[in-house]
Amino acid sequence: MVRIPAFLKPGDCIALISPSRFAEPEQIAAAEDFASAHNWQIIAAPGLGGSEGQLGGSDQARADQINAALADPRVRAVWSVRGGYGAVRAVDLVDWSLLDRDPKWLVGFSDFTVLLAHSFSRNFVSMHGPMAIQLARTASDETFEALADALKGSPKMLKTSFGGPDFSLQGPLVGGNLSVLYSLLGSSSFPDLSGCILAIEDLDEYHYHLDRMMQGLRRAGVFNGLAAVAVGSFSDLKDHDLPFGRSWSQIVRDAIPSGIPVVEGFGFGHESRNLTFIHGLAHELTATSGHAVLRPLLPSA
Q1: What is the pLDDT of residue 285?
Q2: Which CATH class, in words, describes the domain spanning 158-296?
Q3: Cα–Cα distances in Å, from 51 out to 86, 87, 95?
Q4: pLDDT tens digit string along 126-161?
Q5: Is the CA virtual torsion 70, 75, 79, 80 positive or negative?
Q6: Where does CATH 3.50.30.60 sit in the chain?
Q7: Are 139 and 130 in contact (CB under 8 A)?
Q8: I want to staple 171 with a disulfide (CB 3.0 to 4.6 A). Which of 64, 108, 110, 227 is the partner?
């Protein structure tokens, strides 16, 4: 049984962390403005804004940010400033028993997929959603309205068009960035996807490398037993002068066992429209009349 943290109320605190790349002042300021607009408060984790090369401090310093946020009884959500790379170097330095004692929301995407996956392996749901860096850039209003709604306990349904046969199924919605998931293969952080709806998205990859990752996951057997695949955006992809010869959609479908539905076009990923979903929560995926809907199945109060 997964554990669901309490949703946020007015006056609650959100801890801001940089588990991957370093935080910049405008990103922190944007997060504070967002929180204030919803009557929440931002607590900057110790050392936020520090750096070591591209990273937001040493591995231990970044893990300490997470530990401080998890240990602070005022904090009800732990929000990543940005992605990039680095969370995998800190995940094993986190004291995850703190989350067991006081469940709270982990919020982010991209490189933050490491922490989403690891928390699911410990039977916690979390939020795959936008980060403060997107506030400081060009995220759509819908993106941050969806994040606020999810934090308040009213996550939105995700919708897309669908040209396949009608179906309806249920399973935990699990996944995130394909490259990061692939990098976790064989580790204790890699999620058990049996019965799950696998969510995937990616950015700035060569077509052949997408194929390498999908085929590697296929050969490892992780797609066996999937309920379905829900695809977000695959953005800014690259190819060579002699093209690979398959689109990203073909690459995904080539690797997924036949009979497992693959639905594209859900609004999450590295685009200005990056809608929040509750990672690890059971969802109902229904396709009918040319449309598909992912509906979160929150337990009754």
Answers
A1: 98
A2: alpha beta
A3: 12, 14, 22
A4: 999 999 998 877 668 899 999 999 999 999 999 999
A5: negative
A6: 158-296
A7: yes
A8: 227
